[in-house]
Amino acid sequence: EAGVAQSPRYKIIEKRQSVAFWCNPISGHATLYWYQQILGQGPKLLIQFQNNGVVDDSQLPKDRFSAERLKGVDSTLKIQPAKLEDSAVYLCASSLERAYTDTQYFGPGTRLTVL
Amino acid sequence: ILNVEQSPQSLHVQEGDSTNFTCSFPSSNFYALHWYRWETAKSPEALFVMTLNGDEKKKGRISATLNTKEGYSYLYIKGSQPEDSATYLCALITASKLTFGTGTRLQVTL
User: pLDDT at residue B1 above 70?
Assistant: First the structure.
């Protein structure tokens, strides 16, 4: 079974530039998550999709971050414009459904450095 | 903001040592607790899903317990091996939201 794919793996940009990350979840998984993991902290949920609908985006900085999951499969997360404090690892995960016992399967992450 | 705390922050043990870490959280209103292992340059990998019935979970040399009344979970590793070196994260599920702790970084040396 193919895992969660993410690209790019690494990205370096200057502040005020834009950046986009892509995620392809495990086939058949209805729920997709984007997390931000800043060095020294645990991953923080940014947005959760159920199929192509948003379930929770309460911690997404909507003035600069946006995400979409067209057709309920792939997803993109965009930052525009980036700030220094956005430097982090961005993790995508998927699960079969939303049940609290569902295991989340993570991709390898995208490490973003904002200079 | 839900406070999920893990201790210690980091741990250095010798091969063959047994070790354990703690995940502490507010003891009410949660549905489940997850443990993940995150090796450097790899994806976080699910270890256990602990539900409120409190059963001990075991996978090889690794096991976990959950005390719902006092709000903590222990992860045990018996006979640590270098390949156990990783960051171990716990995450609490409340109202279908998953809140991670900051992790325990384990390093096992020969």
Answer: no
CA-to-CA separations, B76 to A101, B48, B102, in angstroms, rounded? 21, 12, 18
Q: What is the pLDDT of residue B62?
A: 96
- Residue A115: what pLDDT? 96
Q: Closest partner residue to A98 among B91, B96, B101, by Cβ?
A: B96
The residues that bridge with B52 in the sheet, in sequence order, are none
Distance CA A93, CA A45 (A): 10
Q: Are A73 and A62 in contact (CB under 8 A)?
A: no
pLDDT given for residue B27 in this prediction? 67
Q: Which residue has the tokens 């940014």?
A: A46
Q: Which DSSP string corresponds to A53-99? A: EEEE-TTS-TTTEEEE-GGGS-EEEEESS--GGG-EEEEEEEESSS-
Phi-psi region of A84 (alpha: psi -120 to 50; beta: other; left: phi over 0): alpha
Which residues of chain B make contact with A103, given a CB cutoff of 8 A? 34, 46, 49
pLDDT tier for residue B52 given thresholds of 50, 70 and 90: confident
